[in-house]
Specification:
Radius of gyration: 24 Å
Mean pLDDT: 86
Order of helices and strands: HHHHHHHHHHHHHHHHHHHHH
Length: 701
């Protein structure tokens, strides 16, 4: 129980540190009156969007809550699951909301700080990102702590400890569904909003009208800046809250299945708390000099992450020794494997998406022959970039399984190996506090650049914010790589937990998970297709929404006299409203798919079919998400590489071709790609929550 105490202590430390960082940011000046006016417009738009989104999501949650209550009274799930579903969604939404609030309060402050020095701008933007990062991990551990102590000391207080551990682990495994559902709504809705605005603003403003990015004459410019916050901050915060919860809860359930009881259950929780303290220390090492290159800026952020990882590596040895003595040292190796795999995936994501390295530079060179070749090259780059992460995850799975004592033909040893894989996923996400801080700072820097442009600040300020923004594209891609890599390990652990759950519900259940079993094979094909169907739906949604913005921006350029001359002000509000309506209209269908398909497969193909579906979705979703995120990040940075003066610079034919490539890449990297990792885990958590229904009413058992 002393290990479990680390949970609320870690949660409190994270939330207090987030508060400290927020106070630091809010002490900075927001600049002149015009900068404050622009920042206020962005805040107003972001608040309006989230208010409408959360109202819609609340209605959806209410319907699902009532349905789950009915199922609980029918004996198909525990009575606490519907309430945990709501709390998971609430804390996930709260994480995104707090992150968005600090981001919209720090964009003008970052621009003003950048007028003094590059390091000052980095400090403010990174501090704002830290609020997001530590709020996510703090609220994640807080939610888990509240439920754990309630279940242990109130609901199951009279049971022996071993039985307590079994019941708590099985119940808490279902808690991730609310967080996953909220994350999907936030990521998809925010992604549709931000990319519709971005695509519309770029196609008409940059390509057709030939005006600079973030030019105040562009009617979609405020919507574009709002989108950075509702998609890349609020959506990402909810997304990584869900990843953090899923990894921790699945590892705890597998620990109990492996026979480690309450101690094993406590280890993933304690490891998450240790990661918080390590991330706090690492965050103080993020700083840079004034004339910093992209490489040195990346090195500055990497330094903080690597220090945090090293601290976790050292502390986890003592954690495993304390929990298990010297008998389970392989679990320490599994944690190291997760940490190493996360950092390697981050490094190779950076390699493929940063304009510091050859792949993105060669992609920029493809603009010499037009838009078609830069799109072909970008797709090729994304596809090639999937190979190394697949190898890394494959090695991480095998090494974690073996060193943890996993043996495939022995049930107990097999369970220990699966726990090792789950613990590896927790290790990968243990430094999420600082990893997410380096990710969330990017949208703040992007907004700062927009405010610098719109308020007419000195060109040197825009150069500094562009350097921070370009770095933000790379760290965002790195953060997505981290989330996608951890999703693969977590989804694998969740699949194993789903099979355990079904066996616990029906001990005489006969499973045949052989690839030659038609139910498994059909499930595998359906699961493999789901990420592609999901990506198609979300890409189509961005396309529809973007067309409405393109039409509106063209209309204003044509009808508002004096707009292009700068003597009239555009109608920003209409573009914000169009994006908001489009996002809310398009969000429901892809989100419902994640609930309906597991149930349909379960009722028709049984537990075997659902297991095949989950494995197919995990494999294809992992690869597709990496491909889309890396292609999008590389296209964006290829454009910025040209804008920095290479290959003809801004306004050249190369630049116009790169803008088209970036336009294609926008929904790749900020809507569809990062949403897929939520999809594959939501499929698993839905299957676990409704396992009793599938076991009891399937036509194929």
């Amino acid at each position: 129980m002393d290990l479990i105490l680390l949970m609320p202590v870690g949660a409190a430390a994270a939330l207090l540190f987030a508060y400290y960082r927020a106070k630091q940011v809010l002490r900075e000046s927001e600049g002149n009156e015009l900068m404050q006016k622009i920042a206020a417009a962005i805040r107003q738009g972001a608040n309006a969007y989230l208010k409408r989104q959360y109202s819609g999501v609340a209605k959806f949650f209410a319907v699902v809550f009532v349905a789950m209550i009915v199922l609980s009274f029918m004996g198909q799930m525990e009575i606490f699951v519907p309430f945990a579903f709501v709390t998971g969604g609430f804390f996930s939404a709260l994480s995104g909301y707090i992150g968005m609030k600090i981001a919209t309060s720090s964009n003008a402050r970052t621009a003003f700080a950048a007028s003094h020095s590059l390091n000052s701008g980095l400090k403010v933007a990174f501090s704002a990102g830290s609020v997001m990062g530590f709020t996510v991990v703090g609220l994640g551990l807080l939610d888990t702590s509240l439920w754990f102590y309630f279940l242990k000391y109130v609901v199951y207080a009279d049971l022996p400890e071993a039985e307590q551990a079994t019941k708590i682990a099985a119940l808490m495994l279902t808690f991730g569904m609310g967080a996953s559902m909220m994350a999907l709504f936030a990521r998809v809705g925010g992604g549709i909003f931000t990319k519709a605005a971005d695509v519309g603003a770029d196609l008409v403003g940059k390509v057709e009208a030939g005006i600079p990015e973030d030019d105040p004459r562009n009617p979609a410019v405020i919507a574009d800046n709002v989108g950075d916050n509702v998609g890349d901050v609020a959506g990402m915060g909810a997304d990584l809250y869900e990843s953090y919860a899923g990894a921790r809860l699945s590892a705890s359930a597998l620990a109990v299945s492996a026979g480690f009881g309450m101690v094993g259950m406590a280890v993933p929780m304690a490891l998450s708390a240790i990661g918080i303290f390590a991330s706090i220390i690492g965050s103080f090492f993020v700083k840079t000099g004034e004339e910093a290159s992209q490489r040195s800026l990346l090195g500055s952020l990497r330094k903080g992450t690597y220090i945090a990882s090293a601290l976790v590596a050292v502390a986890s040895y003592f954690l495993i020794q304390y929990a298990f003595g010297g008998e389970q040292i392989g679990l320490f190796v599994a944690i190291l494997v997760g940490l190493l795999a996360g950092n390697l995936i981050g490094y190779f994501t950076e390699y493929y998406t940063s304009d510091t390295y050859k792949p993105t530079q060669k992609l920029a060179e493809a603009s010499e022959t037009g838009s078609a070749t830069i799109i072909i090259s970008g797709l090729s780059l994304g596809m090639m970039s999937t190979a190394i992460p697949v190898v890394i995850i494959g090695i991480a799975v095998m090494v974690s399984f073996v060193v943890s004592g996993g043996v495939t033909n022995d049930t107990t040893s097999f369970a220990k190996g699966l726990f090792g894989i789950g613990l590896s996923a927790v290790g990968m996400l243990s430094t999420l506090g600082i990893t997410l801080a380096t990710d969330a700072y990017g949208p703040v820097a992007d907004n700062a650049g927009g405010i610098a442009e719109m308020s007419g600040m000195d060109e040197s300020v825009r150069d500094r914010t562009d350097a921070l923004d370009s770095l933000g594209n790379t760290t965002a891609a790195t953060g997505k790589g981290f989330a996608i890599g951890s999703a693969a390990l977590t989804a694998l652990a969740l699949v194993a937990a789903y099979v355990d759950q079904c066996r616990a519900l029906k001990p005489d259940l006969v499973l045949d998970l052989s690839i030659t079993n038609p139910s498994v094979l059909v499930g595998l094909f359906v699961g493999a297709a789901l990420p592609f169907v999901f990506a198609a739906m979300t890409m189509s949604s961005v396309g529809k929404a973007a067309m409405s913005i393109v039409t509106e921006v063209r209309r204003q350029f044509k009808e508002i006299k004096g707009l292009m001359e700068g003597t009239a002000e555009p109608d920003y509000h209409t573009c914000v409203d169009l994006c908001t309506k489009s996002a809310q209209q398009e969000i429901l269908a892809p989100s419902l798919m994640a609930i309906i398909v597991p149930l349909v497969i379960g009722f028709t193909l049984g537990v075997n079919g659902v297991t095949g579906m989950l494995m197919g979705a995990t494999a294809s979703g992992f690869i597709l998400a990496i491909m889309m995120s890396n292609s999008g990040g590389a296209w964006d940075n290829a454009k910025k590489y040209i804008e920095s003066g290479h290959l003809g610079g801004k306004g050249s034919d190369n630049h116009k071709a790169a803008v088209v490539g970036d336009t294609v890449g926008d929904p790749f990297k900020d809507t569809s790609g990062p949403s897929i990792n939520i999809l594959i885990k939501l499929l698993s958590t839905v299957s676990i929550v409704f396992a009793a229904l599938i076991v009891n009413f399937s036509l194929n058992l």
